[in-house]
Task: structure prediction
Amino acid sequence: MADETDEPDSAAHPFTRLTPDLVMDATESVGFQCDARILELNSYENRVYQIGIEDDEPVIGKFYRPERWTESQILEEHTYTQLLADSDISAVPPLIIDGSTLHEFDGYRFSLSPRRGGRAPAVDDLNTLEVLGSHIGRIHAVAGDGGFTYRPLFGLQEFGLDARDAVVAAGYIPAELMPAFDSLYDGILADLAALFERVSVNTLRLHGDCHMGNVLWRDDLPHFVDFDDARSGPAIQDLWMMLSGEREQQQNQMMHILRGYRQFNHFNLAELQLIEGMRALRMIHHVAWIARRWDDPAFPRAFPFFDSERFWSEHLLSLKEQWARLSEPAIEIYD
Result:
């Protein structure tokens, strides 16, 4: 277990220099005049701000985490969201300023986007799920078959195997829990490998992190934001996070989601078998994400119990329960 007296070195973290003055200077470097009103928005991976502009609407400034994405990967995301917007899909691409969507100031890469408001969708409403399904179907139809050129592929390697290695290397798992950790992770990753080998999928360009915190509901329509995790993968990755409740409830929810989705795009029903596997991978990837980012002072503040025995005991119990769900029948939707 990592030394409990060790604290992240906030002075060494690259976001430490990202002060309000620097944010305003960066914004003004591309031609805007700030009015000194800055509101930091909820974002751990990057830093995102609502920035007041003199005599105009505020803009949203996104400052990218250094060394996470290459310039080609960021620009590919921008091109993707612009394609969606040009196809009358409510995504929010960055503003094009002097012919570019990606800018740099004092070592930080950033983009500026229009501000869009809204509330979280009511996913307990089946009609809302059908509307969401239809809009994601439109996104996938525009994206077409095939994946991104530069952005990664969703799969077991990154979200499972690499994630496990990152958790172990970080050293936060209590020594007395390591045997249980090794046994559980070896078993569930072997079953996940067999699952993803067994199910044939079509690969396309995805939102990648389509949970309802990344969807704003306004004027009875969904508006999709934060394509930072856009990657290639199977369509089900953009659909399963809308599901909740018991199996029968999830089956009914997915029926309505696909009723909307299939108005605009084909869906491979075999991908329904991947839902519980993807849920397991998200759980594994989440703890690896925290471990990799522990040097960022925002993470110990947001996840203060991460290096405790209780956290890891609960994680292993939850993952063991999820492992059991892999052997249960997948939800079924009939043509």
Observations:
- The chain has a mean pLDDT of 94.
